[in-house]
Amino acid sequence: MANLKTVVITGAAGGMGSATAALFKSKGYQILGTDNREIPGVDYSVVGDVADEATWAQITAVIEQNNLSVSSLINIAGRNYFDLITEAKKSEWLNMFEVNVVAMVLGVKHLAPYLRKATPSSIVNMSSISAHIGTSGYAAYVATKGAVDSLTKALSLELAPQIRVNAVAPGWIETPFTVTGLNLNPDPVAYRKTVEKMHALNRVGTPEEIAKVIYFLASEDSSFMTGSIVTSDGGYLIKN
Length: 240
Ligand SMILES: NC(=O)c1ccc[n+]([C@@H]2O[C@H](COP(=O)([O-])OP(=O)(O)OC[C@H]3O[C@@H](n4cnc5c(N)ncnc54)[C@H](O)[C@@H]3O)[C@@H](O)[C@H]2O)c1
Description:
7-stranded parallel beta sheet, Rossmann fold, 8 helices, binds nicotinamide-adenine-dinucleotide, alpha/beta, about 240 residues
């Protein structure tokens, strides 16, 4: 329906993406989800690589064809890559920056004209506390999330005052992303306990807890916030 506000969510098939889509849906928004795999539970979907400009052309075509009023862009899609720096593969590093950073740039490039029309409007980017902590073997991930923080601040100025731009930086959240990471460890059960204890709250977070922060940053509840990187980490940074 053209009269409902629409939120575009990347990584909408993933742990935090699907939780975010469900929360916005419960608040009365339409969801245009994009991911490189099938996306259940959204109103409109575009399956493709977010780092590919053709995917964004398809997304704008869906917006035009359905006369959608886009009030927020939520950039959640992301990937991880492990290698010690002496083994670093240039192709992997380039793809990490394409998926975790350049895809956000493409999304903003293609959707800013629609967001400008639908005031008030906002963008929320997915960062990570990893931007502030070095993790051996994950330099590419850490570097891309640092870039997300800088990009968020730069875009918040360029798009002000019409479009607010903020980022969320979660601690460990229970999703397929972290389960894959845990399983790389020789003792995933013991490692998970260690990870839980790294958080002051002695547990990892849920996708629904981060979805609430994203909703806050996207909505007018945060109307005086732009250029902010909001940490939601169960006290990880303060403890370590
Ligand atoms: N899980 C955590 O602990 C955690 C913590 C901080 C930040 N993050 C970030 O949150 C985001 C979502 O992670 P998640 O934990 O929900 O993981 P997830 O793996 O469940 O979701 C990521 C989604 O992005 C999609 N995706 C990946 N590459 C893509 C591409 N090139 N094109 C289109 N879609 C693509 C995947 O298919 C997947 O559905 C990522 O940016 C991640 O870096 C995760």
